[in-house]
Amino acid sequence: METTHRVFVGDARDLSAVDDESIELVVTSPPYPMIEMWDDLFADLDPAVADALEAGDGRRAFEAMHAQLDRVWDELERVLVDGGIACVNVGDATRSVDGSFRVYPNHARVLEAFESRGFDPLPDVLWRKPANSAAKFMGSGMIPPNAYVTLEHEYILVFRKGGESREFEPGADRRYEAAYFWEERNRWFSDVWTEVRGELQALESPDDDLRERSAAYPLEIPYRLICMYSAYGDTVLDPFWGTGTTTLAALCAGRDSIGYELEAAFLERFENQLADVPALSRSVGRTRLERHREFVSQRRADGSTFDYDAEHYDTPVVTKMERNIRLREITEIEALEADDGGDYRAIHEPLSLE
């Protein structure tokens, strides 16, 4: 199986290189309005942002920032197929502007933006970020009433374009081979994710400054979402590509991908680690299989039995739908010539157990 991965250096407000209704899944994490590290970016996109912040008008700045994201959401509505899914990882912001502290509800504003474009909201996910500090309060500390709850979670908002789910031909191999294990389904489709960092191995960034500027999420997050909401042969789009975590997840999951990124430096960093991607994909697949075997051992120890066996692996499974699961690993990856970004091709084979 071959997958292709294209990264354009350009502005996500204009995805003109992506055809109408050519994307099955969007997985992305945009810059968060009213988080200070993104002020300069939004001000470059619209000087009205800087004017509002200088005037101490946080609400006007918040809306001006989201107006720039709205232009990206317009493009997503165009490029997604009917029934396609958009997963948007976003956090709210807390900030003092002109001496007034408040929360800026980014997730609510993004939800409103997608609904206004005809998307159907689906149940969302909260994932808890590892805390970097033991301090669990903001404001007046232990003296009431002026302390504030700290934000330790982000939202993964999930939307479907149009009112109908995608349809597949009966028994489609590319869908059934992309199935997940029963216990994965129970964990992944929970509405609260904890300790996602470290679930799967990720490539280390040699450039901490780039990673910080991208605010990259853990590999586990886009990998889960790609497995949950797409099949083999689908194309995943990330309009805010950053360090390429979504593309790495698509490579490991055996899906095609497209990314848009303003800063060419991120692309160079990504290409420097291409040689490590096959080992990463193998590690991800083997981790999933080993975790399933641990589940089988525990279930048997508890006295349960299994009615089905996986066709491609020496292990039982809980349901009939899991029998054809076929994990993939990358055996070859190469960078192709591209004038306006990066172009990559990967060869996937069934996961080797040797």
From TrEMBL:
The record lists the catalysed reaction(s) as: a 2'-deoxycytidine in DNA + S-adenosyl-L-methionine = an N(4)-methyl-2'-deoxycytidine in DNA + S-adenosyl-L-homocysteine + H(+)
A molecular-function term among this protein's GO annotations:
site-specific DNA-methyltransferase (cytosine-N4-specific) activity
Which SUPFAM superfamilies does the annotation name? S-adenosyl-L-methionine-dependent methyltransferases (SSF53335)
Query: What range(s) does the DNA methylase N-4/N-6 domain occupy?
Result: 23-269
Which EC number applies? 2.1.1.113
Is Ribonucleoprotein given among the entry's keywords? Answer: no
Pfam families given in the database record? N6_N4_Mtase
What are the alphabetically sorted keywords of the record?
Answer: DNA-binding, Methyltransferase, Restriction system, S-adenosyl-L-methionine, Transferase
Q: Name one GO biological process term.
A: methylation
The answer, when asked if S-adenosyl-L-methionine is one of the entry's keywords, is yes
InterPro entries reported in the protein's UniProt record: DNA_methylase_N4/N6, MeTrfase_CN4_CS, RM_Methyltransferase, SAM-dependent_MTases_sf
The record's similarity note reads:
Belongs to the N(4)/N(6)-methyltransferase family. N(4) subfamily.
Q: What is this protein called?
A: Type II methyltransferase
The record lists the organism as Halopiger xanaduensis (strain DSM 18323 / JCM 14033 / SH-6)
